[in-house]
Write a structure and sequence with these properties.
2 copies of one chain form a homodimer. By secondary structure, chain A is of the alpha/beta class. Chain A folds into 2 domains: 4-78 and 341-442, Aspartate Aminotransferase, domain 1 (Alpha-Beta Complex); 112-338, Type I PLP-dependent aspartate aminotransferase-like (Major domain) (Aspartate Aminotransferase, domain 2, 3-Layer(aba) Sandwich). In chain A, 37% of the residues lie in helices and 13% in strands. Chain A has helices at 10-18, 25-35, 41-48, 80-94, 113-125, 138-152, 168-181, 221-230, 250-253, 325-335, 343-367, 392-402, 425-442, and strands spanning 59-60, 66-67, 76-77, 132-134, 159-163, 186-190, 203-209, 234-238, 257-260, 275-278, 371-372, 384-388, 404-405, 407-409, 413-417. Chain A has a 7-stranded mixed β-sheet with strand order 4-10-9-8-7-5-6, with helices on both faces. In chain A, helix 8 links the parallel strand 7 and strand 8. The first copy, chain A, is globular. The two termini of chain A are 38 Å apart. Mean pLDDT of chain A is 94; it is low at 1-19. Chains A and B meet through helix 1, helix 4, helix 6, helix 7 and helix 10 of A and helix 1, helix 2, helix 5, helix 7 and helix 8 of B. Chains A, B: Residues 1-24 are annotated as: Disordered.
Chain lengths: 443, 443
């Protein structure tokens, strides 16, 4: 029903169908620039001393490509296919229904799988394990935590305040919830860099995405959360481009709620289950966050099959339905990549990669109509770098065909995501060589 | 966080951990009765003339087991593991983000995968492809269609009428939605076999599960839907134990909404994505069913990234988030098993299997405290047979340990599901021999 041809470019489709070798002389030229790029000695030196360099071998990546779209779909961790086979053949095919409980003592039962995955995500976002639930999609989780926030807020607070340029789904979900509730609820869109005067007595919740999906601009979560709390406003943070990209400290910031993606920097696979965070302040016996979508998996005793819903003790109460075990197992396996990763080292490398990219791209910005839109200031930058270009859609199609896989975002954004777990500084130089070839061909 | 030991029996866990050979003399005795059962000639004859017998080879099933829990988790279709490998290694690992659009002309892109799966489910439930969406879990979908029904109903209709003994999640979800809405909404629980007098002018929607999860009692969907429509009440059918078990005719019945599971009789794998149905009456430009949880995947043009939500033309509008591609691909592959299946032949065989089971169990009902709770009348029976037994929990644990895998439901139900795609009449005789051994050991 969705007309895919209206939503992607023909070049993207062609590139993926034919894969290597490149399909056109232009793609070949970009590919040659990429693979033949001379790597400056200072970058080789940075790579030689990179404490995370060893992590790259834990991923399977195609040859002839610099993959700069891990902020849309993380690369495949090498261990995942075998785990999927094991889940399909043994746990499903052989043990069948028994797998819901079998292996609970060894941490292999399906019933507690959502909680085990939550416990792996918790340290990446500065949360306690029982404050995290892994379930559903980011949109559905946004709906659930917004609903909880609105119900927790005093009745006279009926406004959701959000970034005017927030990710569309966040806006759609908030508006859909308010339409459902009716009765004077309102979505108010403002500039998140200028919140002063907007945290008024009618605001129930502040819904913000920490890192902007287009510009890569990072907000000051700690300062904004403190400002909101002082004004009696609950915070809902979308960590889509944060979790797994750098250390997040939800508890340190005093956040109330958060959601995030499993398939971006957490590398959980296409459409991997999402996570949500509920501060333990809202999980107590009194004034607990209400569960709008309540299902058997979030019940304190799922197999009792009571007629009334009694919420599970932690954020697990926000898991309504039977988890998608195949997708969830892939995410579970993917998260093991983070087990020995120092998140501060991850952040240091991310900034070094994006600094390098910005520096190497500077000469191209002077020659071509490219405008950097990502903040140069480290504290205000996520793990991506974006540029405006009047033919961004066509340029990105060329790049993808040639092996520099970033993505295009309307209306005119070229977006390049950097993943410190599998990118080297040499990759940055190769990508820039590819961009140069693409821009020169179009000039 | 969930204490699994409180929700299953130790015997179940032990059985699954040790698998074959059976863990105890009792399990060995049940297993021997099962594998050594003499199969009556009339049953061998039925199997010899079974037009669906050839389908069994399309499934991978463990040896030494009669698996009668396909109504909780369908068995593994043989083609699924290879499909999963292909999705993980090629589509994710190699093509990466390009797989969202690549192969659209060959029906292999991820973007339209939910619609392709919907098109495979549509004929199984008597729907048009654009009336079906495949997404989320059954609980979340129940929330979405109930929300749509309440918003479509006139404001003075604020009651959801449901079966007092409905599946707990249906009750929880309905109550959670009404709590969220506040303002005089009410969940009213009645006996679905005696609806007369309950379809009053304050009722917005009737939420019923066609086949009861405990007793296997099937409702008359056509008659009840007609009665509801005549009373101005919208219908929401839960097809958890219907879809894939026998032909369902939602359009013929005039149903408004429906939901169902991908992981039971559709064999889509543990926690497979769910489906929902919205009659095309509610998908038009005027008076369309509103989308409470609206995300980018349900937008008419997802990559435009508009600030306002414009719903996709069909039921696709109810797909809020990025689909869980691994789980959804398994379901897509699993549904191919149905491509050459005559659903009326499926129903005929299902009734023959359950008739046979009821008949062979009769002598045991006379000797032991077993009470059949499934209707004998064909029109009122799904594809499972259930008995009450005062020690149902313990008896089922014994049976599972010995290789007759059914399940226990509180408080005292032994449940046996029959799947015509992979069960023979000989399996029925083997299962009954196992049940006899278990009951004799406990007498």
């Amino acid at each position: 029903m969705t007309n895919i041809h209206a939503t992607t470019t023909a070049a993207q489709t062609t590139a993926a169908q034919t894969a290597r070798p490149p399909a056109s002389p232009l793609h070949a030229r970009i590919g040659a620039a990429l693979t033949g790029a001379a790597i400056p000695a200072d970058l080789l030196d940075l790579d030689a001393h990179d404490p995370l360099a060893r992590k790259r071998e834990e991923f399977t990546l195609p040859g002839g490509v610099v993959y700069l779209d891990g902020n849309s779909l993380g690369a495949l961790p090498r261990a995942v296919p075998e785990r999927l086979q094991q889940v399909a053949a043994q746990e499903w095919g052989d043990a069948l229904i028994r797998s819901w409980s079998a292996g609970a003592d060894r941490g292999r039962d399906w019933m507690n799988l959502p909680d085990r995955v939550a416990a792996k995500i918790a340290p990446l976002i500065g949360a306690l394990p029982h404050e995290v639930a892994v379930t559903d999609t980011t949109g559905v989780n946004t709906f659930k935590v917004l609903a909880a926030a609105l119900k927790l807020a005093p009745a006279e607070r009926r406004v959701i305040l959000t970034d005017a340029e927030n990710f569309p789904t966040d806006l759609y979900v908030a508006q859909g919830l308010l339409d459902l509730l009716g009765g004077g609820y309102e979505l108010r869109r403002v500039n998140p860099d200028a919140l002063d005067g907007h945290l008024t007595a009618d605001v129930a919740a502040l819904l913000l995405t920490e890192v902007d999906y287009r510009t890569g601009r990072r907000l000051d979560m700690a300062a904004i959360t403190a400002q909101a709390r002082a004004a009696g406003v609950l915070t809902v943070w979308d960590l889509a481009h944060s979790a797994g990209a750098f250390p997040v400290d939800l508890r340190g910031a005093g956040a109330d709620f958060a959601v995030g993606c499993g398939y971006k920097f957490l590398n959980g696979g296409p459409g991997a289950p999402s996570f949500l965070f509920v501060s333990e302040r809202h999980l107590g016996n009194e004034n607990a966050a209400p569960v709008a979508i309540s299902g058997w998996m979030g019940h304190a005793d799922p197999f009792e099959m009571d007629r009334a819903f009694t919420p599970a003790p932690g954020a697990r109460r926000f898991v309504p339905g039977t988890p998608m075990v195949l997708s969830l197992s892939a995410l579970d396996s993917a998260l093991d990549v983070f087990a020995d990763v120092d998140l501060h080292a991850l952040r240091t490398k991310s900034l070094s990669l994006t600094d390098t990219f910005i520096r190497l791209m500077e000469p191209l910005c002077a020659r071509f109509p490219l405008t950097l839109v990502t903040p140069q200031e480290h504290a205000r930058r996520g793990s991506q770098v974006s540029y405006r270009h009047p033919q961004a859609r066509e340029v990105m199609a060329d790049l993808i065909g040639g092996g520099v896989i970033g993505d295009y975002r309307t209306p005119d954004i070229l977006r390049f995501g950097f993943t410190p777990l599998y990118h080297s500084h040499a990759d940055v130089a190769r990508a820039v060589a590819g961009v140069q070839a693409a821009l020169e061909a179009r000039a």
